[in-house]
Amino acid sequence: MEHQELPTPPVLSGAKPGLGHLIEFGRNRAGLLLRGLEEQGRIFTVKLGPQNVAVLIGPEYHRTFFMETDKSLNIGTPYKFLRASFGEVFFMAGHDEYVRQKPFVTQAFRREKMVRYIEVMDREVQKWLDTLGDAGEFEIVGTMSRLAQEVAGHALMGERFQEEAGREFWDLYQDLTQGLDPILPPNLPLPKFWRRDRARARMLAILQPILDERRAHPDDYDDFLQDFVNSRYTDTQESIEDDVLLNLMLGLMFAGHETTAGQAAWNVILLLQHPEYLQRVLAEIEAFAPYGEPVTGKTLHALTHLGYAVTETERLRPSADMLLRDVDEAIDIGGYHIPAGWKVQVAGEVAHRLPDVFAEPDFYDPLRYAPGREEDKSDRFALIGFGGGVHKCTGMNFANNEISVITTLLLQQFDLELVTQRPDVARGTGANRPTPTIIRYLRKPQLEKEKVAAPAAAGCPVH
Length: 463
Ligand code: HEM
Known about the structure:
Blueprint: H1 22-40, E1 43-48, E2 51-56, H2 59-67, E3 73-74, H3 83-86, H4 95-108, H5 111-130, E4 135-139, H6 140-157, H7 161-178, H8 191-216, H9 224-230, H10 242-273, H11 275-288, H12 297-302, H13 304-316, E5 323-327, E6 331-333, E7 336-338, E8 343-346, H14 348-351, E9 363-364, H15 396-413, E10 414-418, E11 425-426, E12 433-434, E13 438-443, E14 460-461
Parallel strand pairs: 2-8
Antiparallel strand pairs: 1-2, 3-5, 4-13, 5-8, 6-7, 9-14, 10-13, 11-12
The chain binds protoporphyrin IX containing FE.
Residues 75, 91, 102, 105, 252, 255-256, 259-260, 263, 319-320, 323, 385-387, 391, 393-395, 398-399 line the site of protoporphyrin IX containing FE.
């Protein structure tokens, strides 16, 4: 069939003249997409003002979304609002620059580098736990955010970064992220944009002397930042320009901390909401992660039930709940035609609950990833919490390791109880996270821990 004979995807009901679904999208975007799925099926159109957005739900359509990226579909243009905060680097600088810069980023996350990052995670998480005292309460969302900043600062920028840059750097991130606006032109004379520009200028000024020192004494350092500083473009053999490097570091620290913090908080919350499964994780921690010994990659590898829990968190509470592309060249998909000029969107939060992909999808059941079931392996585009294809998250292992180290050390040393029983999902322009959630803790008498038996697991609804 010729392109033009196919219809465009059906428009979801409730579009208002001029505004389309903009208001409903702003108020409850997950609800809007769920409504679309129920009403129209797995491909439908949402109208955001005059913009047509084709929503694609399910692994076979995710495949087109991810495999057509950098071909018919463009990842750079929908995210161009990030440029004002993080500069014009990586995929925001266009495909050719992305291809030139990608090797620096991937080499810094190679498997052998992870050993050192896990050491950093172990040390930073333990430092935080040592401040807790024997009993008390903490709010996990803000706490995870600060902890993820400490880990990202130390692992990506070096051991002395916190001393060199201090809290000022991370406080400035607030202004940088609050200036993210996918709709308004980024140079409008608004206070939030002025604050964003001031913060960005100050952050670059904080980073520049650190970079100068690294360039002057490259042999004194062996870490993530130094790998970047030492890197050379493969085509010209020139080293990375200062502005590219600084922008990449700003972007990586952004990509790496809010998302991780959100899923780390949910991982702990979901375990506490499911005490039977928690018992399995506790038993495993007792067996393989004894108090006083550093948590290493080998330890994490042994904690299989914790690993399943981390994946279940990605499925049920993805920090990055929806991903967008601009349609540069028309595509045909699922019997529909999506013209150039449209946007396409995938939404993990909705797609991760398709019952033909994940059995009883509203139930928290990490054992769905255990041998014999392995629901995540049914299709490589079934789980998309970290994206897919060429642009799949470079920091996925880093993030999952960090979430695992946090959960392990916390559960190893404390008995925890949810004071806020049923947190909700807080959505923003950045990453999704739980609404503020208080956790009560009591330090365990370390050497007298009782053996925790692992009872049979049973799924239970998430909400
Ligand atoms: C739980 C934590 C994280 C989540 C949920 C997450 C999610 C994602 C997603 C969904 C994408 C793909 C975006 C798209 O296709 O439109 C992505 C890309 C990316 N993420 Fe993450 N991320 C996390 C942690 C991290 C960390 C810790 C880092 C680095 C320190 C990082 C660095 C990146 C980079 C560099 C890309 C772009 C890859 C490319 O375009 O080639 N992320 N992330």
